[in-house]
């Protein structure tokens, strides 16, 4: 297989795009495409300040790398969850994130949940109703709250996450199976800013997971290979496996599934856009983030119930 641009031996073959590229041209193609998506979906402009949520994984570190290569002002945010799981998951992912930031001379903000709230994610999960079973519900709620809080407090215009096409297609698949219209309405490459919350963007949402793995490896990015130990057996991994089977039989099916959904939503064929004012969102009386609850948001209500252990 030869690179379409220079005829040298190809390093990456993307069947769904009918495109094979050598290492150098692949490492040019990914940022070019990312830049195209940023403009197409009007994610942000060069004068805006971007906060990239980095976990130490291939997607978020690659996203940070690409945005900096494209010349954007992008700082990182690492949220320390306090997850060990026998593989020292949080320590190792933090170490690799700090290493990346130092090597590239980038600004990294670190928030440790235990230092901030007195309990790690697993401990917080144990102390709440939500902690029955996996800590993922508590973890997801806490990460969203902290990303919003830091972006707002530090005055960033945009919060960028490294969700790739496999992530987005799996979420779309799950929400379609249950016809969760409220979630489907909010899923997309851009979630506009609303009172007190920065705009949220997913610049990698059209890249397959294996494309991001190839980018990270060819760029020499040192990332954490292990998944979070709590991800094992999750529904999203199950959906990804099903979608991978479909993709093997029909290359490009995952991309078509996601892009046709975006198109149908944009054209108004599927849904009526919600009237956010009618949703009666107002600021949480404790943290100020928007909520539909009468006083405290879900995160602050959860934190009221737990008894933090001083650290
Ligand atoms: S898999 Fe791990 S990082 Fe992901 S939500 Fe669950 S606990 Fe958090
Ligand atoms: Zn080439
Ligand atoms: Zn709150």
Secondary structure elements and pairings:
Layout: E1 12-14, E2 19-21, H1 23-40, E3 49-53, H2 58-69, E4 73-80, H3 89-103, E5 108-112, H4 113-117, H5 121-126, H6 136-153, E6 158-160, H7 165-177, H8 181-186, E7 190-191, E8 199-201, H9 209-219, H10 235-249, H11 253-267, E9 282-283, E10 290-291, H12 298-305
Parallel strand pairs: 3-4, 3-6, 4-5, 6-8
Antiparallel strand pairs: 1-2, 7-8, 9-10
The structure holds iron/sulfur cluster and zinc ion (ZN) (2 copies).
Residues 284, 286-287, 289, 296-297, 299-300 line the site of one zinc ion.
Structural features:
311 residues; binds zinc ion; 46% helix; single chain; binds iron/sulfur cluster; 12 helices; alpha/beta; six-stranded mixed beta sheet
């Amino acid at each position: 297989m030869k690179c379409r641009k220079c005829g040298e031996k190809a390093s990456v073959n993307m069947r769904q795009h009918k495109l094979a590229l050598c290492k150098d041209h692949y490492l040019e193609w990914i940022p070019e495409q990312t830049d195209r998506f940023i403009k197409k979906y009007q994610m942000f402009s060069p004068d805006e300040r971007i906060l990239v949520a980095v976990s130490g994984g291939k997607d978020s570190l690659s996203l940070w790398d690409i945005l900096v290569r494209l010349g954007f002002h992008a700082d990182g945010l690492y949220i320390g969850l306090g997850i060990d799981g026998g593989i020292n998951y949080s320590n190792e992912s933090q170490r690799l994130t700090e290493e990346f930031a130092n090597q590239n001379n980038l600004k990294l903000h670190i928030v440790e949940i235990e230092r901030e709230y007195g309990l790690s994610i697993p401990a917080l999960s144990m102390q709440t109703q939500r902690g029955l079973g996996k800590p993922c519900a508590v973890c997801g709620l806490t990460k969203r709250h902290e990303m919003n809080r830091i972006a707002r407090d530090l005055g960033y215009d945009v919060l960028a996450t490294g969700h790739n096409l496999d992530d987005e297609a799996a979420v779309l698949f799950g929400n379609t199976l249950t016809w969760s219209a409220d979630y489907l309405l909010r899923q997309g490459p851009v979630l506009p800013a609303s009172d007190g919350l920065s705009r949220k963007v997913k610049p990698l949402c059209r890249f397959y997971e294996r494309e991001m793995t190839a980018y990270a490896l060819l760029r020499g990015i040192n990332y954490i290979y292990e998944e979070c130990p709590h991800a094992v057996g999750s529904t999203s991994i199950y959906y990804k496996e099903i979608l991978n089977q479909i993709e093997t039989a029909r290359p490009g099916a995952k991309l078509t599934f996601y892009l046709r959904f975006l198109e149908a939503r944009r054209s108004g064929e599927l849904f009526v856009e919600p009237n956010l004012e009618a949703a009666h969102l107002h600021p949480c009386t404790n943290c100020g983030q928007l909520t539909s609850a009468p006083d405290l948001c879900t995160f602050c209500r959860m934190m009221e119930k737990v008894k933090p252990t001083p650290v």
